[in-house]
């Protein structure tokens, strides 16, 4: 199948349009986002793929999406994770389930069963398709693309002749944000977290609008990245763009102002985790990556045996003022990884309550 075989044309000019993606089984966060933007029946909502999997509540998310679609002003595109019902007999499924929580786990839990209760993967697939057909029906015919007067909304990316883009590429293209294209319309994609496209050394999950290409990346890394969030792109009735996000991290008050001074931040993201680690201590270890400048890495982030980072990493330190609140991502020896205005970085532990 190609995009030309399953797409939707939609007029959104003169209406406020909210766009999000990669909700990943988090109906609570979607609800929080819609409340934050004061979503109303006069608005349009576009969910640009991946409403399920990875998060804890995919079944309820599908039911929520079904109710939203029934309102008549909510539209969705298909994402690669939404195709899991079609992949129940694929060889990769069981391995995937070892490291990702999926709607398959939820369905088995509702049935009171495990994979071991089935004589074959085919038997499991047949029962899940039969018992949960109503869930599959919500997502199975979603369009691969929504095209408006000025925008193309597609989960992962498009080819130059966008109508000829295959379903696989539309749902799985990983680096589209950084790929030049000649399309006049702005292409809005999810799928690949925006934080993977590091700009000026900064690591953040906020929506990225490419300075040279008509491309917007809106995946906030929700349920994929340790510090992820659910992003919202707001296209006002007059065409003006705004961005926002929601998350659920603990808030902590700054009790002591901190200014790290001038710094040149370094950030490392998927898939570039290979490093050479040198000497360090319990707090930080000096590391190098290829021809890049070396930097100090929080020691807990390093797999010394594999000479790899365990996760995305930034050496950025935040400037904070006493009395403000920041989001706490994780506390480490002597330092705390926080998020402020969507930007991830460290502060010394003593500056927080």
UniProtKB/TrEMBL annotation:
Pfam families: Metallophos (PF00149)
Gene Ontology CC terms, in alphabetical order: cytoplasm
Sequence ranges assigned to domain Calcineurin-like phosphoesterase in this UniProt record: 16-193
Gene Ontology MF annotations: bis(5'-nucleosyl)-tetraphosphatase (symmetrical) activity; phosphatase activity
InterPro entries given in the database record: Ap4A_hydrolase, Calcineurin-like_PHP, Metallo-depent_PP-like
Biological processes, Gene Ontology terms: RNA decapping
Protein name per Swiss-Prot or TrEMBL: Calcineurin-like phosphoesterase domain-containing protein
Species, as recorded: Macrococcoides canis
């Amino acid at each position: 199948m190609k995009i030309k075989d399953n797409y939707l044309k939609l007029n959104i000019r003169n209406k406020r349009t909210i766009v999000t993606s990669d909700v990943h089984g988090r109906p609570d966060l979607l609800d929080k986002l819609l409340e934050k933007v004061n979503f109303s029946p006069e608005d349009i909502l576009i969910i640009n793929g991946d409403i399920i999997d990875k998060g804890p509540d995919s079944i309820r998310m599908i039911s929520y999406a079904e109710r939203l679609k029934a309102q008549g002003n909510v539209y969705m595109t298909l994402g690669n994770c939404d195709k899991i019902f079609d992949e129940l007999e694929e060889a990769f499924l069981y391995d995937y389930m070892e490291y990702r929580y999926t709607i398959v786990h939820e369905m088995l839990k509702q049935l009171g069963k495990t994979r071991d209760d089935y004589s074959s993967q085919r038997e499991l697939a047949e029962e899940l398709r039969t018992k949960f057909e109503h869930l599959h029906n919500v997502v199975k015919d979603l369009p691969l693309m929504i095209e408006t007067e000025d925008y193309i909304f597609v989960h992962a990316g498009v080819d130059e002749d966008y109508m000829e883009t295959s379903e696989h590429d539309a749902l799985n293209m990983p680096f589209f944000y950084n790929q030049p294209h000649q399309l006049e319309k702005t292409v809005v994609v999810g799928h690949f977290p925006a934080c993977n496209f590091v700009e000026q050394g900064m690591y953040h999950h906020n929506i990225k609008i490419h300075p040279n290409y008509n491309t917007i990346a809106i995946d906030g890394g929700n349920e994929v990245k340790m510090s992820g969030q659910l992003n919202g792109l707001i296209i006002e009735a007059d065409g003006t763009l705004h961005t926002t996000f929601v998350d659920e991290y603990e808030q902590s008050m700054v009790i002591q102002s901190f200014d790290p001074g001038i710094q040149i931040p370094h950030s490392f993201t998927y898939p570039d985790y290979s490093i050479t680690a040198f000497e360090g201590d319990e707090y930080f270890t000096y590391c190098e990556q290829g021809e890049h400048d070396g930097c100090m890495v929080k020691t807990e982030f390093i797999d010394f045996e594999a000479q790899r980072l365990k996760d995305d990493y930034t050496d950025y330190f935040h400037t904070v003022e006493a009395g403000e609140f920041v989001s706490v991502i994780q506390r480490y020896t002597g330092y705390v990884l926080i998020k402020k205005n969507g930007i991830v970085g460290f502060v010394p532990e003593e500056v927080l309550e």
